[in-house]
Amino acid sequence: MTSPIPSPLSPTPLAPRPCFQADWGIALGGHRLVLYLLIAALASTGLLLVAWLRERAFRRRHAAIRDLLDGADALEAQLQECRQRMQRLREMLTVLPEEMSAEATAALSADAKVQAALKDLLAHRLWIQQNAEAASTQQLAAARAALAQSSATLTAQIDRLGAITADLERAQSSAQSVGPRRAS
To answer: Cα–Cα distances in Å, from 152 out to 72, 79, 115, 128, 145?
Structure first.
């Protein structure tokens, strides 16, 4: 009898092959390649994570320095506004009688404080210029908090000057309206 010719479509039984050491080397080599690729991927991920964290810290530091400089600019603008309001108050005091302007005169005694604040602000700017790059995040935050506190105090002083100016303007307008009546 003739043995049937196996067709390509018919399943052929697989006989167990004897395992040779060369076969294990190929199998382990494939696993080694996967292991090496996995180690390389993990190392790359670790390096990217470290680079990202450093970049994030760098950006935070520069944002803190920028906020500090912006705070110094805002404080300087407030100090200049305070100075202008005090100058306007001085001009108003020359027109009004002394008894009407006693509170304004007391408020103008803060002019030395404004000068001291401007000098302090200059010292802050100098510190920022010399130490900002080497300063810790906590030192930068403390400097920003000090500027914010100064700004809050100055805002209260500016509000006080605004209220005094409004009172003096009312007093000045009522003094002008009373003045011509007595002359008639």
So the answer is: 13, 12, 17, 21, 10
**What is the per-residue pLDDT across 81-133, written as a single tens digit (0 to 9) for each?**
888 888 887 777 776 666 656 666 666 666 777 777 888 888 888 888 888 88
Report which of 100, 110, 120 is spatially closest to residue 157, judged by C-alpha positions. 110
Q: What's the CA angle centered on 35, arms 30 and 41, to 5 degrees?
A: 125
pTM: 0.61
Asked if residues 154 and 79 have their Cβ atoms less than 8 Å apart, the reply is yes
3-state SS assignment for residue 18: coil
All residues at 6 or more sequence positions from 12 whose CB lies less than 8 Å from its CB, including other chains: 6
Measure the CA–CA gap between 22 and 14, rounded to whole angstroms.
20
Burial class from Cβ neighbours inside 10 Å (0-12, 13-18, 19+) for residue 168 reads buried
Residue carrying the six token digits 């003096």:
168
